[in-house]
Amino acid sequence: MRKKLKLGILGGGGNSLIGVLHRVAAYMYEHYEIVGGAFHSKYESSLEFAKNNGLPTDRIYKNIDDLIAKEMALPETERMDVVSVVTPNFLHFDMVKKLLDNNFHVICEKPLTTTYQEAKILKKAIEGKHLVFAVTHTYTGYPMVREMRKLVESGRLGTIQKVDVQYYQGWINPIIHDVEKRKTTWHLDPEKSGKSSCLADIGVHAFNMIEFTTGLKVDKVLSDLNYLYDDNPMDIDGTVLLRFSKNVKGVLRSSQVATGEENGLSIKIYGDKAGMKWEQEDPNFLYLMEEDKPLQVLKPGHAYNSELSLNSVKLPPGHPEGIFDAMGNIYLGVAKAIKGEPYDSGEFPTLTDGVRGMNFIESAMESHSNGNIWVAIDNE
Ligand SMILES: NC(=O)c1ccc[n+]([C@@H]2O[C@H](COP(=O)([O-])OP(=O)(O)OC[C@H]3O[C@@H](n4cnc5c(N)ncnc54)[C@H](O)[C@@H]3O)[C@@H](O)[C@H]2O)c1
Protein backbone atom coordinates (compact mmCIF):
# COMPACT_ATOMS: atom_id res chain seq x y z
CA MET A 1 0.00 0.00 0.00
CA ARG A 2 1.22 3.53 -0.85
CA LYS A 3 2.49 5.36 2.21
CA LYS A 4 0.48 8.48 2.95
CA LEU A 5 2.24 11.65 4.01
CA LYS A 6 1.46 12.75 7.55
CA LEU A 7 0.09 16.26 7.35
CA GLY A 8 -0.28 18.76 10.20
CA ILE A 9 -2.32 21.95 9.81
CA LEU A 10 -1.89 25.26 11.62
CA GLY A 11 -5.00 27.47 11.36
CA GLY A 12 -7.90 26.77 9.05
CA GLY A 13 -10.39 25.90 11.79
CA GLY A 14 -14.19 26.00 11.62
CA ASN A 15 -14.78 29.66 10.92
CA SER A 16 -11.94 30.14 8.46
CA LEU A 17 -12.22 30.90 4.79
CA ILE A 18 -9.38 28.84 3.37
CA GLY A 19 -9.11 25.86 5.76
CA VAL A 20 -11.62 23.63 4.00
CA LEU A 21 -9.79 24.09 0.70
CA HIS A 22 -6.59 22.73 2.22
CA ARG A 23 -8.31 19.78 3.88
CA VAL A 24 -10.19 18.74 0.75
CA ALA A 25 -7.07 19.30 -1.39
CA ALA A 26 -5.03 17.09 0.91
CA TYR A 27 -7.46 14.19 0.48
CA MET A 28 -8.14 14.68 -3.24
CA TYR A 29 -5.42 12.40 -4.61
CA GLU A 30 -5.09 10.22 -1.47
CA HIS A 31 -1.48 11.24 -0.83
CA TYR A 32 -1.97 12.69 2.66
CA GLU A 33 -3.59 11.94 5.99
CA ILE A 34 -4.26 14.80 8.38
CA VAL A 35 -2.80 13.68 11.71
CA GLY A 36 -3.23 16.81 13.81
CA GLY A 37 -2.20 20.42 14.31
CA ALA A 38 -3.56 23.58 15.88
CA PHE A 39 -6.60 24.76 13.96
CA HIS A 40 -7.36 27.68 16.26
CA SER A 41 -5.41 29.82 18.73
CA LYS A 42 -7.24 28.09 21.63
CA TYR A 43 -6.48 24.42 22.31
CA GLU A 44 -10.09 23.64 23.32
CA SER A 45 -11.45 25.06 20.05
CA SER A 46 -8.93 23.04 18.02
CA LEU A 47 -9.90 19.89 19.87
CA GLU A 48 -13.58 20.52 19.33
CA PHE A 49 -12.98 21.21 15.66
CA ALA A 50 -11.06 17.95 15.28
CA LYS A 51 -13.83 15.99 17.04
CA ASN A 52 -16.57 17.56 14.93
CA ASN A 53 -14.71 16.83 11.72
CA GLY A 54 -13.64 13.26 12.41
CA LEU A 55 -9.97 14.20 12.62
CA PRO A 56 -7.59 12.47 15.06
CA THR A 57 -7.63 14.14 18.47
CA ASP A 58 -4.41 12.77 19.97
CA ARG A 59 -2.10 15.22 18.18
CA ILE A 60 -3.88 18.51 18.72
CA TYR A 61 -1.43 21.11 19.96
CA LYS A 62 -1.64 24.37 21.90
CA ASN A 63 0.60 26.25 19.49
CA ILE A 64 3.63 25.88 17.20
CA ASP A 65 6.08 25.36 20.09
CA ASP A 66 3.95 22.58 21.54
CA LEU A 67 3.70 20.99 18.08
CA ILE A 68 7.44 21.10 17.48
CA ALA A 69 8.32 19.75 20.94
CA LYS A 70 5.89 16.83 20.81
CA GLU A 71 6.37 15.93 17.16
CA MET A 72 10.17 15.93 17.53
CA ALA A 73 9.81 13.52 20.45
CA LEU A 74 8.07 10.99 18.16
CA PRO A 75 10.01 8.44 16.09
CA GLU A 76 10.74 9.87 12.63
CA THR A 77 8.38 7.39 10.96
CA GLU A 78 5.47 8.68 13.04
CA ARG A 79 6.30 12.37 12.82
CA MET A 80 4.44 14.83 10.57
CA ASP A 81 6.15 14.94 7.17
CA VAL A 82 4.70 18.26 6.16
CA VAL A 83 2.81 21.09 7.86
CA SER A 84 0.40 23.54 6.22
CA VAL A 85 0.34 27.07 7.62
CA VAL A 86 -3.05 28.64 6.92
CA THR A 87 -3.37 31.19 9.73
CA PRO A 88 -3.69 34.97 9.29
CA ASN A 89 -0.53 36.51 7.81
CA PHE A 90 1.23 37.76 10.97
CA LEU A 91 1.62 34.20 12.28
CA HIS A 92 3.25 32.72 9.15
CA PHE A 93 6.84 33.79 9.80
CA ASP A 94 7.30 32.42 13.31
CA MET A 95 5.55 29.14 12.47
CA VAL A 96 7.40 28.58 9.20
CA LYS A 97 10.80 29.48 10.66
CA LYS A 98 10.37 26.95 13.47
CA LEU A 99 9.14 24.28 11.04
CA LEU A 100 12.12 24.79 8.73
CA ASP A 101 14.59 24.82 11.62
CA ASN A 102 13.22 21.42 12.62
CA ASN A 103 13.24 20.02 9.06
CA PHE A 104 9.54 19.81 8.27
CA HIS A 105 8.37 20.27 4.69
CA VAL A 106 6.03 23.28 4.51
CA ILE A 107 2.97 24.40 2.59
CA CYS A 108 2.29 28.06 3.42
CA GLU A 109 -0.49 30.42 2.50
CA LYS A 110 0.24 33.70 0.79
CA PRO A 111 1.44 36.32 1.51
CA LEU A 112 4.46 34.39 2.76
CA THR A 113 5.15 36.80 5.66
CA THR A 114 4.33 40.37 6.65
CA THR A 115 7.66 41.85 5.53
CA TYR A 116 10.24 41.25 2.79
CA GLN A 117 12.90 41.08 5.50
CA GLU A 118 11.15 38.12 7.16
CA ALA A 119 10.78 36.42 3.78
CA LYS A 120 14.53 36.71 3.19
CA ILE A 121 15.20 35.16 6.62
CA LEU A 122 13.08 32.16 5.61
CA LYS A 123 15.01 31.86 2.37
CA LYS A 124 18.23 31.70 4.39
CA ALA A 125 16.72 29.19 6.80
CA ILE A 126 15.99 26.68 4.03
CA GLU A 127 19.41 26.95 2.37
CA GLY A 128 21.25 23.64 2.28
CA LYS A 129 18.20 21.70 3.48
CA HIS A 130 16.41 19.24 1.23
CA LEU A 131 12.98 20.50 2.12
CA VAL A 132 9.96 21.06 -0.11
CA PHE A 133 8.28 24.43 0.30
CA ALA A 134 5.11 25.47 -1.47
CA VAL A 135 3.27 28.79 -1.33
CA THR A 136 -0.39 28.29 -2.19
CA HIS A 137 -1.03 30.68 -5.02
CA THR A 138 -4.07 28.54 -5.66
CA TYR A 139 -4.92 29.80 -9.13
CA THR A 140 -1.73 28.30 -10.58
CA GLY A 141 -3.37 24.89 -9.98
CA TYR A 142 -6.09 25.40 -12.61
CA PRO A 143 -5.52 23.27 -15.75
CA MET A 144 -6.03 26.22 -18.12
CA VAL A 145 -3.65 28.48 -16.17
CA ARG A 146 -1.03 25.75 -16.41
CA GLU A 147 -1.83 25.56 -20.14
CA MET A 148 -1.13 29.30 -20.45
CA ARG A 149 2.33 28.74 -18.98
CA LYS A 150 3.01 25.89 -21.41
CA LEU A 151 1.70 27.84 -24.43
CA VAL A 152 4.09 30.70 -23.65
CA GLU A 153 6.94 28.23 -23.07
CA SER A 154 6.24 26.53 -26.42
CA GLY A 155 6.58 29.85 -28.27
CA ARG A 156 2.98 29.81 -29.54
CA LEU A 157 2.51 33.45 -28.49
CA GLY A 158 5.86 34.58 -29.86
CA THR A 159 7.68 37.29 -27.96
CA ILE A 160 5.60 38.69 -25.09
CA GLN A 161 5.03 42.41 -25.44
CA LYS A 162 2.13 43.27 -23.14
CA VAL A 163 0.64 41.82 -19.95
CA ASP A 164 -2.55 42.94 -18.22
CA VAL A 165 -3.76 41.37 -14.97
CA GLN A 166 -6.74 42.49 -12.97
CA TYR A 167 -7.92 41.26 -9.57
CA TYR A 168 -11.08 43.04 -8.50
CA GLN A 169 -13.13 42.28 -5.39
CA GLY A 170 -15.77 44.40 -3.69
CA TRP A 171 -16.04 42.83 -0.24
CA ILE A 172 -14.39 45.68 1.69
CA ASN A 173 -16.82 48.27 0.32
CA PRO A 174 -19.50 47.71 3.00
CA ILE A 175 -16.82 47.81 5.72
CA ILE A 176 -14.41 50.56 4.79
CA HIS A 177 -16.79 53.53 5.18
CA ASP A 178 -17.46 52.78 8.87
CA VAL A 179 -14.57 53.01 11.36
CA GLU A 180 -16.19 50.49 13.73
CA LYS A 181 -16.85 47.96 10.98
CA ARG A 182 -13.20 48.13 9.90
CA LYS A 183 -12.33 46.43 13.18
CA THR A 184 -14.28 43.32 12.12
CA THR A 185 -11.60 42.10 9.70
CA TRP A 186 -7.95 41.35 10.36
CA HIS A 187 -7.21 42.36 6.76
CA LEU A 188 -7.52 46.04 7.82
CA ASP A 189 -5.36 45.59 10.93
CA PRO A 190 -1.65 46.21 10.18
CA GLU A 191 -0.71 44.12 13.24
CA LYS A 192 -2.28 41.05 11.64
CA SER A 193 -2.22 41.64 7.90
CA GLY A 194 1.13 43.40 7.57
CA LYS A 195 1.52 46.86 6.02
CA SER A 196 -0.81 46.15 3.11
CA SER A 197 -4.36 44.95 2.66
CA CYS A 198 -5.14 44.92 -1.07
CA LEU A 199 -1.65 44.25 -2.47
CA ALA A 200 -0.87 41.62 0.17
CA ASP A 201 -4.20 39.87 -0.16
CA ILE A 202 -4.86 39.83 -3.90
CA GLY A 203 -2.28 42.00 -5.69
CA VAL A 204 0.31 39.40 -4.77
CA HIS A 205 -1.76 36.63 -6.44
CA ALA A 206 -1.94 38.76 -9.59
CA PHE A 207 1.82 39.35 -9.48
CA ASN A 208 2.46 35.63 -9.12
CA MET A 209 0.04 34.80 -11.96
CA ILE A 210 2.00 37.01 -14.33
CA GLU A 211 5.36 35.52 -13.50
CA PHE A 212 3.90 31.98 -13.45
CA THR A 213 2.21 32.20 -16.84
CA THR A 214 4.78 34.25 -18.76
CA GLY A 215 7.98 32.94 -17.18
CA LEU A 216 9.11 36.59 -17.18
CA LYS A 217 10.41 38.42 -14.11
CA VAL A 218 9.11 41.86 -13.23
CA ASP A 219 12.04 44.25 -13.07
CA LYS A 220 10.43 47.38 -11.58
CA VAL A 221 7.07 48.74 -10.50
CA LEU A 222 5.33 52.10 -10.25
CA SER A 223 2.18 52.16 -8.17
CA ASP A 224 -0.75 54.36 -7.25
CA LEU A 225 -2.61 53.06 -4.20
CA ASN A 226 -5.87 54.19 -2.65
CA TYR A 227 -6.64 54.22 1.09
CA LEU A 228 -9.94 56.14 0.72
CA TYR A 229 -9.74 57.63 4.24
CA ASP A 230 -6.85 59.36 6.07
CA ASP A 231 -7.54 57.32 9.20
CA ASN A 232 -7.33 54.01 7.29
CA PRO A 233 -3.69 52.80 7.28
CA MET A 234 -4.30 50.04 4.71
CA ASP A 235 -4.41 50.17 0.91
CA ILE A 236 -7.71 48.86 -0.41
CA ASP A 237 -7.04 49.50 -4.09
CA GLY A 238 -3.94 49.72 -6.20
CA THR A 239 -2.87 50.11 -9.81
CA VAL A 240 0.69 49.08 -10.56
CA LEU A 241 2.62 49.60 -13.78
CA LEU A 242 5.00 46.75 -14.48
CA ARG A 243 8.25 46.96 -16.39
CA PHE A 244 9.84 43.67 -17.40
CA SER A 245 12.37 45.18 -19.77
CA LYS A 246 12.60 48.19 -22.10
CA ASN A 247 10.00 46.82 -24.50
CA VAL A 248 7.95 44.48 -22.34
CA LYS A 249 5.46 46.24 -20.12
CA GLY A 250 2.27 45.57 -18.27
CA VAL A 251 -0.28 46.69 -15.75
CA LEU A 252 -1.63 45.11 -12.57
CA ARG A 253 -4.93 46.41 -11.23
CA SER A 254 -6.23 45.22 -7.87
CA SER A 255 -9.12 46.39 -5.74
CA GLN A 256 -11.16 45.41 -2.71
CA VAL A 257 -13.64 48.25 -3.29
CA ALA A 258 -14.66 47.37 -6.83
CA THR A 259 -18.27 47.33 -5.69
CA GLY A 260 -20.19 44.24 -6.74
CA GLU A 261 -17.14 42.33 -7.92
CA GLU A 262 -16.68 38.89 -6.36
CA ASN A 263 -13.40 37.17 -7.18
CA GLY A 264 -12.66 38.84 -10.50
CA LEU A 265 -9.16 37.72 -11.37
CA SER A 266 -8.38 37.89 -15.07
CA ILE A 267 -5.18 37.83 -17.06
CA LYS A 268 -4.36 38.80 -20.63
CA ILE A 269 -1.03 38.11 -22.27
CA TYR A 270 -0.08 39.39 -25.70
CA GLY A 271 2.85 38.14 -27.77
CA ASP A 272 3.80 39.15 -31.30
CA LYS A 273 2.16 35.99 -32.72
CA ALA A 274 -0.87 35.54 -30.46
CA GLY A 275 -2.71 36.73 -27.40
CA MET A 276 -4.66 34.83 -24.74
CA LYS A 277 -7.02 35.62 -21.91
CA TRP A 278 -8.46 33.77 -18.92
CA GLU A 279 -10.88 34.61 -16.12
CA GLN A 280 -10.98 32.95 -12.69
CA GLU A 281 -14.77 33.06 -12.48
CA ASP A 282 -14.94 31.04 -15.73
CA PRO A 283 -11.79 28.96 -15.33
CA ASN A 284 -12.51 26.22 -17.86
CA PHE A 285 -12.27 28.52 -20.88
CA LEU A 286 -8.95 29.81 -22.21
CA TYR A 287 -9.22 32.17 -25.16
CA LEU A 288 -6.40 31.98 -27.69
CA MET A 289 -6.21 34.71 -30.33
CA GLU A 290 -3.70 33.92 -33.05
CA GLU A 291 -2.98 36.40 -35.86
CA ASP A 292 -5.10 35.60 -38.95
CA LYS A 293 -6.99 32.73 -37.28
CA PRO A 294 -10.47 32.61 -35.77
CA LEU A 295 -10.72 32.86 -31.97
CA GLN A 296 -9.98 29.50 -30.31
CA VAL A 297 -11.50 28.44 -26.99
CA LEU A 298 -9.36 25.83 -25.23
CA LYS A 299 -10.84 23.64 -22.50
CA PRO A 300 -9.42 21.20 -19.91
CA GLY A 301 -8.89 17.51 -20.50
CA HIS A 302 -8.55 17.55 -24.30
CA ALA A 303 -5.55 15.92 -25.94
CA TYR A 304 -4.45 19.24 -27.46
CA ASN A 305 -3.43 20.44 -23.97
CA SER A 306 0.07 20.04 -22.54
CA GLU A 307 0.98 17.15 -20.26
CA LEU A 308 1.06 19.51 -17.25
CA SER A 309 -2.48 20.68 -17.96
CA LEU A 310 -3.75 17.17 -18.72
CA ASN A 311 -2.23 15.85 -15.49
CA SER A 312 -4.24 18.50 -13.61
CA VAL A 313 -7.56 16.99 -14.63
CA LYS A 314 -9.25 13.95 -13.08
CA LEU A 315 -12.45 13.55 -15.12
CA PRO A 316 -13.29 13.59 -18.85
CA PRO A 317 -13.86 17.00 -20.52
CA GLY A 318 -17.07 18.73 -19.55
CA HIS A 319 -16.75 18.18 -15.80
CA PRO A 320 -15.90 21.68 -14.56
CA GLU A 321 -12.60 22.09 -12.73
CA GLY A 322 -12.90 24.48 -9.79
CA ILE A 323 -10.91 26.10 -7.01
CA PHE A 324 -10.85 22.91 -4.89
CA ASP A 325 -9.33 21.03 -7.84
CA ALA A 326 -6.75 23.78 -8.30
CA MET A 327 -5.62 23.50 -4.68
CA GLY A 328 -5.71 19.69 -4.97
CA ASN A 329 -3.31 19.90 -7.91
CA ILE A 330 -0.87 21.97 -5.85
CA TYR A 331 -1.01 19.43 -3.02
CA LEU A 332 -0.43 16.66 -5.57
CA GLY A 333 2.73 18.36 -6.87
CA VAL A 334 4.02 18.84 -3.33
CA ALA A 335 3.41 15.15 -2.54
CA LYS A 336 5.40 14.10 -5.63
CA ALA A 337 8.26 16.40 -4.64
CA ILE A 338 8.38 15.13 -1.05
CA LYS A 339 8.30 11.51 -2.25
CA GLY A 340 11.12 12.17 -4.71
CA GLU A 341 8.92 11.45 -7.74
CA PRO A 342 9.32 13.43 -10.98
CA TYR A 343 7.23 16.60 -11.20
CA ASP A 344 6.95 19.69 -13.37
CA SER A 345 8.19 23.02 -11.96
CA GLY A 346 4.69 24.38 -12.75
CA GLU A 347 3.09 22.08 -10.18
CA PHE A 348 3.51 24.42 -7.22
CA PRO A 349 4.85 27.91 -6.46
CA THR A 350 7.91 27.80 -4.23
CA LEU A 351 9.49 29.76 -1.40
CA THR A 352 11.29 31.84 -4.03
CA ASP A 353 7.89 32.88 -5.43
CA GLY A 354 6.75 33.78 -1.92
CA VAL A 355 9.85 35.92 -1.37
CA ARG A 356 9.34 37.68 -4.71
CA GLY A 357 5.75 38.34 -3.71
CA MET A 358 6.87 40.11 -0.54
CA ASN A 359 9.44 42.07 -2.55
CA PHE A 360 6.66 43.12 -4.95
CA ILE A 361 4.35 44.26 -2.12
CA GLU A 362 7.03 46.37 -0.44
CA SER A 363 8.35 47.85 -3.69
CA ALA A 364 4.85 48.85 -4.77
CA MET A 365 4.18 50.45 -1.36
CA GLU A 366 7.50 52.28 -1.50
CA SER A 367 6.68 53.52 -5.01
CA HIS A 368 3.37 54.96 -3.85
CA SER A 369 4.63 56.58 -0.66
CA ASN A 370 7.57 58.21 -2.46
CA GLY A 371 5.36 59.95 -5.03
CA ASN A 372 4.70 57.18 -7.56
CA ILE A 373 8.25 56.50 -8.62
CA TRP A 374 9.78 53.42 -10.26
CA VAL A 375 11.12 50.96 -7.67
CA ALA A 376 13.19 47.90 -8.54
CA ILE A 377 12.33 44.30 -7.67
CA ASP A 378 15.42 42.32 -6.69
CA ASN A 379 16.28 39.86 -9.43
CA GLU A 380 19.02 37.73 -7.89
N1 LIG B 1 -4.77 31.05 -1.54
C1 LIG B 1 -5.83 31.82 -1.51
O1 LIG B 1 -6.48 32.06 -2.52
C2 LIG B 1 -6.27 32.42 -0.20
C3 LIG B 1 -7.62 32.79 0.00
C4 LIG B 1 -7.98 33.28 1.27
C5 LIG B 1 -7.04 33.43 2.27
N2 LIG B 1 -5.74 33.10 2.02
C6 LIG B 1 -4.70 33.24 3.05
O2 LIG B 1 -4.93 32.24 4.03
C7 LIG B 1 -4.59 32.74 5.34
C8 LIG B 1 -5.81 32.60 6.23
O3 LIG B 1 -6.86 33.38 5.68
P1 LIG B 1 -8.39 33.10 6.02
O4 LIG B 1 -9.17 34.04 5.17
O5 LIG B 1 -8.68 31.65 5.98
O6 LIG B 1 -8.42 33.63 7.52
P2 LIG B 1 -9.60 33.43 8.56
O7 LIG B 1 -9.53 34.57 9.49
O8 LIG B 1 -10.88 33.13 7.85
O9 LIG B 1 -9.18 32.08 9.33
C9 LIG B 1 -7.99 32.01 10.08
C10 LIG B 1 -7.98 30.72 10.90
O10 LIG B 1 -6.75 30.66 11.61
C11 LIG B 1 -7.05 30.35 12.99
N3 LIG B 1 -6.02 30.90 13.86
C12 LIG B 1 -5.85 32.20 14.25
N4 LIG B 1 -4.80 32.29 15.09
C13 LIG B 1 -4.28 31.05 15.21
C14 LIG B 1 -3.19 30.50 15.94
N5 LIG B 1 -2.43 31.27 16.73
N6 LIG B 1 -2.94 29.17 15.84
C15 LIG B 1 -3.73 28.37 15.07
N7 LIG B 1 -4.79 28.84 14.37
C16 LIG B 1 -5.05 30.15 14.43
C17 LIG B 1 -8.43 30.96 13.23
O11 LIG B 1 -9.07 30.38 14.36
C18 LIG B 1 -9.12 30.63 11.92
O12 LIG B 1 -9.61 29.32 11.95
C19 LIG B 1 -4.14 34.18 5.12
O13 LIG B 1 -2.74 34.24 5.08
C20 LIG B 1 -4.75 34.57 3.78
O14 LIG B 1 -4.00 35.55 3.09
C21 LIG B 1 -5.37 32.59 0.82
What can you tell me about this protein's structure?
The chain is 34% helix and 22% strand. With 380 residues, it is of the alpha/beta class. The protein has a domain at 144-304 and 356-369: Dihydrodipicolinate Reductase, domain 2. The strands form two sheets. A nine-stranded mixed β-sheet has the order 13-12-11-10-6-9-8-7-14. A hairpin with a 2-residue loop joins strand 8 and strand 9 (248-255). Helix 5 (116-126) runs antiparallel to helix 13 and helix 10 (198-214) crosses helix 13. The model has no long low-confidence stretch (mean pLDDT 97). Residues 10-13, 15-19, 38-41, 86-89, 91, 109-110, 136, 138, 186, 201 line the site of nicotinamide-adenine-dinucleotide. Nicotinamide-adenine-dinucleotide (NAD) binds next to strand 1.
Brief characterization of the structure:
By secondary structure, the chain is α/β, with parallel strands linked by helices.
Task: Spell out the blueprint of helices and strands.
Elements: E1 5-11, H1 19-28, E2 32-38, H2 43-52, H3 64-72, E3 82-86, H4 92-101, E4 105-108, H5 116-126, E5 133-135, H6 143-154, E6 160-168, H7 173-176, H8 179-182, H9 190-193, H10 198-214, E7 220-226, E8 237-245, E9 248-255, E10 264-271, E11 274-279, E12 286-290, E13 296-298, H11 307-310, H12 323-338, H13 351-369, E14 375-376
Parallel strand pairs: 1-2, 1-3, 3-4, 4-5, 6-9
Antiparallel strand pairs: 6-10, 7-8, 7-14, 8-9, 10-11, 11-12, 12-13
The chain binds nicotinamide-adenine-dinucleotide.
